[in-house]
Amino acid sequence: MAVFRRADFEARVERVRRGALWQAIAGIMILAVGYPAVLALHVYGLLSSSMVRPLLAVVLVGFTVSMLLLALPFRRSIRRTGLTCPVCNKDLYATGLGSPGRYAVLESGKCPKCDTELLDASEVGARPRAPMTWGDKVQEGSLAALVVIGFVAFAYFGKQSVTLRRTEECARRYATARTGADSIRVNQSGFRRSSGTCEYYKP
Q1: CA–CA dist 134, 49 (Å, integer)
Q2: Predicted model pTM
Q3: Per-residue pLDDT at 175
Q4: Cα 122 from chain centre
Q5: Engineering a disulfide at 127: which of 50, 106, 121, 131 sits with its beta carbon 3.0 to 4.6 angstroms away?
């Protein structure tokens, strides 16, 4: 006897998918907002140059931790929605990395792990592409806009932050120059992984 009706199974999959998308948006916001915010504070003089890299590292760690923490409610959502095999407890949602998940269930009607019959044979078949709803468009549009805005802000403030840090470094080098020859050497001094020299960043 089938465990799920196809329509019920697809509805459960959709609930988990929507929840996972909003969780992804929340996690990406940490990077998309956090990185540009740190750089902007530096550019506007509210953060010292020595604090930029440590705070960027903190943002990255925060993003990583948030993704790990978000995985916990995601797993609970799968169990709460009933998307596990009643016989072997296999996660019926996840796909990828050798886990065929929900698509295999729809196409075969069986659990990918233990072959328990989950759908009636009359309802088995490839999953058609569902029409995109207004909510789908809002979610995907929000995620895309967030990524684009975050990238543009990161690129802009990142360039400004690098310029500010190099200008400050060159100012310190010029402050130690005692002769014209010293100043020329500072003019020609550069930075790691960069072809720029202090002559360009001369304060």
Answers
A1: 44
A2: 0.67
A3: 93
A4: 40
A5: 106
